[in-house]
Amino acid sequence: MRDPKALISTAQLAAELGRADLRVYDCTTHLAPPPPGSEDPYLVVPGRSGFEAAHIPGAAFLDLQGEFSDAGTRLRFMMPAQTDLEKAFARHGIGEGTRVVLYSVGTMMWATRFWWMLKSLGFDDAAVLDGGFDKWQAEGRPTESGPAKGYAPAVFTAAPRPGFFVDKEAIRAALARRDVVLVNALGPQFHSGLEPSRYGRPGRIPGSVNVPAATLISPAAKNFIAPSDAEARFAARGVTKEKRVVCYCGGGISATIDLFLLYRLGYDDLSLYDGSMGEWAKDPSLPIETD
Fold first, then answer.
1. What residues form DSSP beta bridges with 166?
2. Could you write out the DSSP letters of every residue in 60-114?
3. pLDDT for res 273
4. Is it true that domain 4-138 has CATH number 3.40.250.10?
5. Is residue 288 predicted with pLDDT exceeding 90?
6. Cα–Cα distance for residue pair 244/231, rounded to 1 Å
7. For labelling alongside 27, which of 136, 143, 170, 175 has CA 20 to 30 A away?
8. Is pLDDT above 90 for 210?
9. The domain 165-280: what is its CATH number?
10. Is 208 left (phi over 0), alpha (psi -120 to 50) or beta?
């Protein structure tokens, strides 16, 4: 696997706790049902209360929508301006010489989203905790409660990598290209369009294939499936290394599970459609495909 330091086990993290350069972050966000009549597909609820109830010792909390997303759009979780991200990451103690570990509760997609963001900005010393806080607690490892003590501010200087995030125009242009494969990370019922979608019109971007993020995680242990199994799932859908791969989902979050594994499997030409179905399904000028 490429970049073995991008994934860290609970045992490895337990052994590293207390290192002066270590920065551990809970990235959890919850999606709650919207109030009646709301145009939003869900309410975004930061996982701060759960963090304060229990977290990995020394960890701090990152609020994805509140501090690390574009506040100037109705779309949730969109990448903000580079300067805003530099300030936000620096404020939380991430910068040169720090080793970052990201985790979340219930699903690792919030951690992989932050990992993809940091990678896009040229920061390479970040890891996702395999199995997240669920695995950490299941193993009886130590936790602490209360507000985050935080880390000293750092200097974060981005070195952006182009292509990590793309917009709907890039997707529209890719529809006719045979050297691009679009991967939908949502569940098969939403990919087929046979069930209503909270994002708008049911269905998928035409020509896309389905590799649900949930199938890349072990249901019992909450950790990633074996690399060989993941590679087989992608290959079965025609996702190969000579093609450009663009992943999407509902809001640009669960697709980062797919992207994290594809990157570690050695795929080089990878992108995330940041607006995903939250944007595509609501635009009647964009085509939708159903079974």
1. 273
2. EE--HHHHSS-TTSSSTT----HHHHHHHHHHTT-STT-EEEEE-SS-THHHHHH
3. 98
4. yes
5. yes
6. 16
7. 170
8. yes
9. 3.40.250.10
10. beta
Task: State how beta strands 126-129 and 7-8 pair.
Answer: parallel
* Closest C-alpha among 275, 273, 272 to residue 116: 272
C-alpha–C-alpha distance, residues 220 and 218, integer Å: 6
Upper half-sphere CA count for residue 10 (Cβ side, 13 Å): 19
* Distance separating alpha carbons of residues 3 and 264, to the nearest angstrom: 6
Q: Which of 140, 119, 114, 117 lies closest to 129 in space, CA to CA?
A: 114
| pLDDT above 90 (res 39) | no
The answer on pLDDT for 50 being more than 90 is yes
Please give the average per-residue pLDDT across 229-251, as a whole number.
97
Rounded to two decimals, the pTM is 0.97
Q: Report the mean per-residue pLDDT for the chain.
A: 96
Domain residue spans in the chain? 4-138, 165-280
| Intrachain domains 4-138 and 165-280 with the same fold | yes
Residue 76: pLDDT above 90? yes
Residue 55, beta-bridge partner list: 144
Residues 6+ apart with CB under 8 A from 225: 215, 216, 217, 218
Given this model, what pLDDT does residue 263 score? 98
Q: Which two tokens stand for residue 270?
A: 């990878």
